[in-house]
What does this fold into?
Amino acid sequence: MKLRACVPATSANLSCGFDVLGLALDLTYEVEVETTEERSFFLHHRGEGEGEVPQDERNLFFVAVRKTWERLGFEGVGLRVCATNDIPIARGLGSSAACIVAGVTVANALCGGKLKFEEMLELAVALEGHPDNVIPAFVGGFTIALREEGRVFYQRFSFPPLFSLFVLIPNYTLSTEIMRGVLPASYPREDVVFSLSHLAFLLGSLFTRDREGFFRALEDRIHEPYRGKYVTGFPEVKAYVKGKGLGNVVISGSGPTLLLVLSRPLEEEEKREIAGIFAARGVAVRIQEVHPEEKGARVEIL
Ligand code: HSE
It folds into this structure.
């Protein structure tokens, strides 16, 4: 049996929506999978992360496949996989969520789709540890996550076409686990109210198509102040973008990529100036325009 699965990149948090908001982007993790007689796993990985990710059963795709089969009580088959990846690894663009969602989706399809969507979602969220990348990776669009007593609920919207989006992807990685470790265990009430009010304002701005309100809402006191120290260029690029009245800047996921949410595309000179901010700190950066992705994970039998 042969099949292909395709999963989008995601940018989690959008500043004040820590562990809650996620947006699918038009970068893709794609796998072509063939079942084999001998019961081994091999994956050939091309594109982002080539030469860095394990190609045997330690690959996160296979970890997700095994967990899904364990859940189904399926003893498994061998798999040969060709992965083609546009999603930079360990940069805050949901590469691990995409890999997990691909693994769960493929494993379930190979078992005749026995798991319900909610079961796949809960399995993938348990593997990833938080829901905000996994949900838009599954369903595309702009999503709100809610976890309650081990269950995962979500709402999905189309992200309105009001913004130009750019990602600034630096040439270094950050571990999500470490970046979660730098966060405090508790917060002063005023910081909680600050973030809650910004999150509510952000959603209200989307309902009313208020672009300036959306820019205003992209501020946070739950994670960005603590992570900003490790994310090169964050305060400086934010000051640059806000100073020019172009929009706002957030840390994508747990970083180090920055997501620019703008009222218009960057001009070449602005890109050079932004690259200069990074260069002055010894970091090379890739500046790339991205778009919201409506399509979530899909699998087709070949
Ligand atoms: N919400 C998660 C975090 C996303 O910020 O730690 C990780 O990509």
